[in-house]
Amino acid sequence: MRADRPGPPRILEWICAATLPWRQREVVLGDLFEEYADLAGRLGRPAASRWYATEVWRSLGPTLSAALRRTFSPRSYDADDLVAVVWAAAIGVIVTVALTVTGLS
Fold first, then answer.
1. How crowded is the C-beta side of 33, counted as CA atoms within 13 Å?
2. What is the rounded CA–CA span in Å between residue 85 and residue 71?
3. Full pLDDT tens readout for the chain, 105 residues
4. Cα(54)–Cα(36) distance, integer angstroms
5. How far apart are CA 39 and CA 44, in angstroms?
6. Measuring CA to CA, how many Å separate 54 from each of 51, 68, 83?
């Protein structure tokens, strides 16, 4: 993240965007950005970034679950939901491997 950038950490924005269906992406990212900006103004950017990271990580489980339900529903198949599932699974594997390698798990 660049020091002069006023928004949340880019990697967290990317993770969130990659795991959300396109229909919800703009609204969710916009809401998170507004809350981040408010917290950054009141508590500082480090606290706002911690809050943002917590929100992104907390959303991965429900987002993945919803995407799986939509993807494998007999009524509708949505390639965008499948992409979200793949990204969420890849991120989960990367985090698990990183925690295992560093001994934090």
1. 14
2. 9
3. 444 567 898 988 988 888 887 788 899 999 999 999 999 999 999 999 999 999 988 888 888 777 777 666 656 556 666 677 777 778 877 877 777 777 654
4. 12
5. 7
6. 5, 22, 22
User: How many Å apart are CA 88 and CA 12, to the nearest integer?
Assistant: 12
DSSP string across 15-57:
HHHHHS-HHHHHHHHHHHHHHHHHHHHHH-HHHHHHHHHHHHH
**Quick one: pLDDT at residue 1?**
40
Tell me how far apart the alpha carbons of residues 6 and 4 are, in angstroms, rounded to a whole number. 6
Report residue 31 as tokens: 């809401």
- What is the dihedral angle through the alpha carbons of 24, 32, 49, 8, rounded to the nearest 10 degrees? 70
Q: What is residue 32's predicted lDDT score, i.e. its pLDDT?
A: 94
Which pLDDT belongs to residue 61? 81
Q: Contact, 39 vs 48, CB < 8 A? A: yes
